[in-house]
Amino acid sequence: MARQTSHTEDLPADFIPKQAVPDPVINSAYLEPQWNWFYKGKVPEKLAGRRRAQYFFQTKQTGARDAADFFAEEQSDDLPLVNALRDDVRRWRDSG
User: Fold this and answer.
1) CA gap 73, 60 in Å, rounded
2) DSSP state of 42
3) CB neighbours (10 Å) of residue 39?
């Protein structure tokens, strides 16, 4: 069996990964999310409430390497069944 190599073996010893925000986990795993990160361009903003369930896709391959160009043609579609299920679960929890 071939040994799988880790990409971390190629990184320098002093490598520190960069995160867009200092503390990305802002909600409890056991409660409905109270906050979400919203990205407008490259700047994250912490917003109150749960983010809508959606998926992102590109309408055209840009071939650009710059993140600003990469996301320029990105669009999103809501996932209505997931959002409806979340509303049903919220009503069920609130009913006691």
Assistant:
1) 7
2) T
3) 11
Distance CA 11, CA 5 (A): 12
Beta bridge partners of 84: none
pLDDT score recorded for residue 76 = 86
Please provide residue 3's backbone torsions phi and psi, each rounded to the nearest 5 degrees. Answer: -80, 130
Residue 82: per-residue pLDDT: 97
Domain boundaries, the chain: 30-86
Residues 40-95 have pLDDT tens digits of: 777 889 999 999 999 888 776 656 565 555 555 668 899 999 999 999 999 999 99
Does pTM top 0.70 for this prediction?
Answer: no
Question: In the structure encoding, which two tokens stand for residue 81, read together?
Answer: 């069944």
Distance CA(76)–CA(51), nearest Å, equals 13
Two tokens at 47? 């917003």
- Contact (Cβ atoms closer than 8 angstroms) between residue 59 and residue 77: no
